[in-house]
Amino acid sequence: MNLTNANPAPEGPAARPSDRTSSSRVTHESARPPGAQLELSDVTVEPALLDGFGWERVFPGRGDRPIELEIGTGKARFLLHRARSMQQHCFLGIEWANEFYRFAADRMARWGVRNVRMLRTDAGVFVRTVCPRRSLTALHIYHPDPWPKARHHKRRLFQPAFVSAAAECLVDGGRMFVQTDHAEYFTIIAGLLRNHPDLAAVPFEPDLAERPGAAAIGTNFEEKYIREGRSIHRIAVERRPRL
Question: What pLDDT score was predicted for residue 36?
Answer without folding.
Answer: 72
